[in-house]
Amino acid sequence: MPWEKNLRTRPTKLRLLRIFTQGLSLFLFNLAIFNFAQTWLILPVEAPQTPWSTSEGAFYVMQHMLTSALIPFLPLAIFFIIGGLVGRAFCGWFCPFGLVQDLVGFIPTEKYEPTEESNKDGRHFGEFLTVVFIIVAAFIGSQMIFGDPEKTIQGFGDFVSDPYSVLSPVVTLFLTIPLYIIHGGWPLSIDAIFGRLLFWIKILILLIIIFITLYIPRTYCRYLCPTGIIMGRIGKHSLIGISVDPIKCTDCGKCEDVCPMGVRILNNLDDANHLRSEACIMCMDCVVSCEEDGAISLKIRL
Ligand code: SF4
Ligand code: SF4
Residues 112-127: pLDDT tens digits? Predict the structure, then answer.
């Protein structure tokens, strides 16, 4: 589909508004760079803990707690309360890595929309990875208590305190690369280039995800992000969400043509015509695109 007609990523007013809220969040989440005190604010977004961050993403906190043999009640409560209320709205409006993906989406390339089945398969792969990260973190925590902590630290190496962070492209972008630059690792020396395999694996993962995002909008959010996977499972049943009025809807499909997450809205309505999708990030593009007044709207779904 040529760029002019690419409805999923064209920078509309609403999308620019979301860029603003996401950019503001990125700024506020990193206020410690200006010597503001770090807070203990935990949110369901991809915001890793850094020396300059004021808050942290719930999945990162969950990983740290599990590897420390603590039951992650607090991050779980945040997932359930926010996800249960507003679904994945934080993905659409406040996530720093969502911002990066939306900006990449504005680059004029021909976008591709996978089939609903392929999107589901991709999400199942992400669910599998999420479960693996949780099990590995819990295993590390159990070894710290019941096994030999020294051997566990040696055995798991970089993965010992938060297995997900080591491979997360979000950590690579917002922590690893800035640290590398701050501590004089940039420009790269020959030693640095060949020095650390893990560093280059991280960079490669980030580049591959950004490259695919050029063609499939929000690739990471759709398929891989553990925060999005968990929030999607909970948010599918959120109190506030998208609903369709079947009397006013003419089945024109415009709402689906603009959805950056590729949600097949009309195929995923429940008996009360509420959208039940794990992918919906509440961006509201579908609502704004609809020309039939009241056919699709944001509602409290009791
Ligand atoms: S799914 Fe996307 S928007 Fe949501 S937390 Fe993950 S990276 Fe951020
Ligand atoms: S279904 Fe609507 S609100 Fe949800 S992601 Fe798609 S366009 Fe955005």
Answer: 999 999 999 999 999 9
**Which domains are delineated in the chain?**
3-231 (no CATH), 240-300 (3.30.70.20)
Segment (H or E) for 298: strand 296-300
Atom of ligand 1 nearest to the CA of 95: 8
Atom of ligand 1 nearest to the CA of 88: 4
Helix and strand numbers, DSSP H then E, in the chain: 16, 4
Q: Which residue's CA is the nearest one to ligand 2's atom 4?
A: 280
Q: Is the Cβ atom of 242 under 6 angstroms away from ligand 2?
A: yes
pTM, full prediction: 0.92
Neighbours of 232 (CB within 10 A): 25
Q: Using CA of residue 296, residue 122, residue 95, residue 13, what is the dihedral sign?
A: negative
